[in-house]
Design goal:
alpha/beta, pyruvate-formate lyase- activating enzyme, nine-stranded mixed sheet, three-stranded antiparallel sheet, 37% helix
Amino acid sequence: MQAFDVFINIPFVVKPAQGIDSGVLSGVNPAIKRAYVDAILCDIESFAEESAVWEIRSLTLGGGTVSSFSPEDFRRLMLGLKRLLPLSPTTSVFATADPAGLTVGHTNELRACGVPQVMMRYFTADVREAAVLGVRSPEAEMGKTDILLEQASITRLGMKIAVGIAGQTPETLLRTLRLANRAGVERFELICVNQERDAELFDVAVTWLVEHGFDRVTTYDFVKPGGENPLIVNWYHAATGDEPVCGRLAFGCATLSVDEEMMWSTIGDVDTYIRHPGEYEVITESVLELTESVRQKQRELDRVYRGGADGLFL
């Protein structure tokens, strides 16, 4: 039985943040989003003969945000995932969302698929910094989300925090971290906006997180015990062949998958992915056999990814 972490790429956001969301789409026609959901489910269904014996360690919905889908489209996606994948009530489910963007429909579906941890795109609590990013300051919007998550009994949270925003100071960054560290937060991800000016600020954030009980598991990911997302922590480690072997199966455009023998990527163009669901001769961008030399490169990347001595930033 092959164990996998499953990743579903959502290439959509409600409102992009400047310097952060270069690889996602906004303002997309709802019909395109529905077609994208259909393409993902068709893609997964092509593995029907194998999937019955998979062991799913975790399910991650990321890239963009689940709140970019309407509750109806998100329900179609999640019902399809439950039908096609051997998920269990104890499966760890990780999803990225926008403050105030979730509805009861979203939270119900997340709860129905397993044990969710919701990663919020908190970015900054400073109004001026939020204006630089082109997004609303999340603190007021989080009030509504806090109530919704409490009603849904979703108690595991994560926070994405931006570092290096023009005008950001150690004081404003620390205030953001303090406000973001609300009840139930067990994970932080630091997002570097401008690496030319954020090295000092990054050190400030790292020091604060470690002092407040968050272990550094990758260069940018900090967790409390039990809060880690294994897909993120083992982004490169899954391909090294170390024991126990746990591969990565990724569905959607611009994704990378790894099993015990091969690594393959899908095309990054959303329209092509939608038009040719399950047609691997069209949507597969590259395939690589995991030879020992490839595995060694993966080990080297993994070491740097986890904060190795060769440099702080990737």
